[in-house]
User: What shape does this take?
Amino acid sequence: MDAKARELAANFDIEKLAGEFYADPYPTYRALRQFEPAKRMPNGSYFLTRYDDLVSVYKNTKLFSSDKKKEFFPKYGASLLYEHHTTSLVFNDPPAHTRVRRLIMGALSPRAIAEMEGELIALVDRLLAKLSAKAEVDLIEDYAAAIPIEVIGNLLGVPREERHPLRGWSLAILGALEPVIGAEAFERGNTAVRDFLAYLETLVARRRERPGNPERDVLTRLIQGEDNGERLSEKELLHNCIFLLNAGHETTTNLIGNGLVALSQNPDQKQRLIENPQLIKTAVEEILRFESSNQFGNRMTTGRVELGGVTMEEGTSLTLCIGAANRDPLQFENPETFDITRNPNRHLAFGSGAHQCAGMALARLEGSVAISRFLQKFPAFALKGSPVRGGRARFRGFSSVPCSIG
Ligand code: HEM
Assistant: This one.
């Protein structure tokens, strides 16, 4: 057993992932955590899998930079994709990051989010009513993917009839973040940024002409800035709106899809949640831990450091494997068990430290409402055949989950 795991760890290369890794990366993560927790990749970067190492990196923005200008230039050249990713707050360091984050956090206030709950419930119930009319449904297409797009659309006040292209743009832009991309994926990502920018320019112009209530309307708030005069530049505004739309989208779709699949594959847990709906809060945290929708984060060292027993030079790229850290036995008891009552559950699905997900309250709300109402309405739902994986390593989820709803 050990020999096989050692071999798995020894042969791991993030640029050459095998089909079985996409289906089930956890044996590889386990092997890496045990034998090579800071694994050097052939391209010179390191792949980190231990919980404590990830936390140390997340907590230190000085020594571990999120700025991707150096790293993305060879991948994207002087393209719109490069401009987009290097202007997003997630790929910047303080002080540029702090300024943009403050403005975004101000706009995503707990009040703005709490006020979305009523509309979210109505949206979910409309979707569930539509599902009732079908004998067989696709959990992703017909349900999980339909929710975040409407929620983020509402958040930024994108008129309903203009939302159609958002999902395709978002998938194309995030797809370009995979460890290796071909010319076609690059072109698709670049075209998506161009079209998305052109669309947002018109949306922002309309909102400037007719501002919404800045207490509720996130886009108006981002346009107007803070009372202290802090504002986003036009470029920052447009690219961070794209980022918000993207960040809240595939990740949340996957939270809902991964959750419903994990529950159907663990019938005792599913039954327990149906009988005790108040467990939805800890259940959502366990789904986030067990099948984290965002599996990788990235940082670059700004000086010589020691991590996982390895000394790394300045300018070393790191992949932080959230999926592996979230099953680290030194942090979680029985980490391979899906337990909807797990407590404490200090998972890293939303990252940690200065860049911790700005939309986590919203994601948790969407996950709870979508999963609990689905279970209430269709307690006998069952998978039909095998769910189809999305085929990505960074964003873990399904592209299609056929099921019967009882
Ligand atoms: C299940 C759903 C979600 C997951 C798993 C997730 C995960 C993450 C992670 C891991 C990060 C940290 C990246 C890093 O440190 O490198 C992050 C950052 C971020 N997320 Fe999320 N996210 C989710 C939903 C959302 C939603 C719904 C929104 C917005 C409406 C959002 C907005 C953001 C923003 C703005 C950042 C950047 C924060 C910063 O750099 O300061 N996310 N997210």
Notes: Residues 66, 89-90, 101, 104, 152, 244, 247-248, 251-252, 255, 293-294, 297, 349-351, 355, 357-359, 362-363 surround protoporphyrin IX containing FE (CB under 6 Å). Residues 102 and 328 are 32 Å apart (CA to CA). The longest strand covers residues 296-301.
